[in-house]
Design goal:
The chain is α/β, with parallel strands linked by helices. The protein has helices at residues 9-16, 25-30, 32-45, 59-64, 71-89, 113-128, 142-152, 183-189, 201-211, 250-262, 276-285; strands spanning 2-3, 49-51, 93-98, 133-139, 159-163, 165-166, 169-173, 193-197, 217-221, 265-268. It has a single domain, classed as TIM Barrel (Alpha-Beta Barrel). Strands 1-10-9-8-5-4-3-2 form an eight-stranded parallel β-sheet.
Length: 288
């Protein structure tokens, strides 16, 4: 079992005491030491992967804020902090996070795959100097994942891809497409690991069996939200629109993780609202 880290963005919001429409990028500008501290805490809890705080460092996000000149320095800073935490810990790997273009959970706002691939290729090349592998996160349609896989593949580093599924029906992507429909595309690009992330745990449990037994490694990392608010639909939205569950403590989350492991998942961690305490309980259970 590979124990992934947990969420970065919501941990930053908790510690900063505020949410902004720059999401986790705000901390890179204001309090980068907190980003590094969170990486350190995840490793101390038993995580074997540090996921770079680059999920939202994408050209469309930065252009909309008049911050495009920060793209390269912010990317490098985020990657360097993950690498430094890994090196101090003495083991583990660094995953270069590539989030969705357009906006999370809104694949209709993403550019077509061929256009998206150019952006992802540029970002992956920036990450490649630092990371052990690329991870495409919260891909919410088949075309969105295709664009990410086309782009990230240019560096020659391993690529993981993670889908976000419908919270009310985990057999479907957030686009409404059946998750089963992604299989032929995955077989074409052959990512090392295919995961489901940033969906409620119950939906993850519904989706994983569809991906199982397809010849690639399987993984999962759910969020701890009650669901995605309808107003959380643009790059100007803030995460305070999203409410946290009160029934998903470390032991409750571990119960879901056990189910995912039984379904064949070999990489398990957490997404938004899943923190170091959750990772510590999973690492202890799975013997990491």
């Amino acid at each position: 079992m590979i124990i992934l880290d947990g969420g970065m963005g919501q941990e930053l919001v908790k510690r900063a005491g505020k949410a902004t429409d720059l999401w986790s990028m705000q901390a890179l500008l204001d309090t980068p030491e907190i980003v590094r501290a969170i990486h350190d805490e995840y490793f101390a809890a038993g995580a074997e992967i540090a996921t770079t705080n680059t999920y939202s460092i994408l050209p469309d996000r930065l252009i909309s804020k008049g911050l495009i000149e920060q793209l390269i320095p912010m990317t490098r800073s985020a990657c360097e902090m993950a690498v430094a935490a890994r090196d101090v810990h003495g083991s583990g790997q660094v995953a270069g996070s590539l989030g969705p273009l357009g906006f999370s959970y809104q694949p209709d706002k993403a550019p077509p795959a061929e256009q998206a691939a150019e952006v992802y290729a540029d970002m992956a090349q920036l990450h490649a100097e630092y990371v052990d592998f690329h991870i495409l996160e919260t891909m919410s349609s088949i075309d969105q994942a295709r664009g990410g896989l086309m782009g990230a593949g240019v560096t020659g580093k391993p690529v993981w891809v993670s889908f976000s599924v419908d919270d009310s029906d985990g057999t479907k992507l957030r686009s409404g497409e059946p998750l089963l429909g992604a299989i032929s595309m995955l077989e074409e690009f052959q990512p090392v690991t295919v995961l489901i992330n940033c969906s409620v745990p119950e939906a993850v449990s519904q989706g994983l069996p569809i991906l199982a037994g397809r010849g690639f490694n399987l993984g999962a990392y759910a969020n701890g939200f009650t669901g995605i608010h309808s107003d959380f639909n643009s790059i100007h939205a803030t995460v305070d629109l999203l409410k946290s569950r009160t029934d998903l403590g470390p032991e409750q989350y571990l119960n879901f993780a056990k189910t995912w492991a039984a379904m064949g998942a070999s990489a398990i961690g957490g997404c938004c609202e899943v923190g170091p305490e959750h990772i510590a309980v999973m690492a202890k259970h799975f013997g990491v």
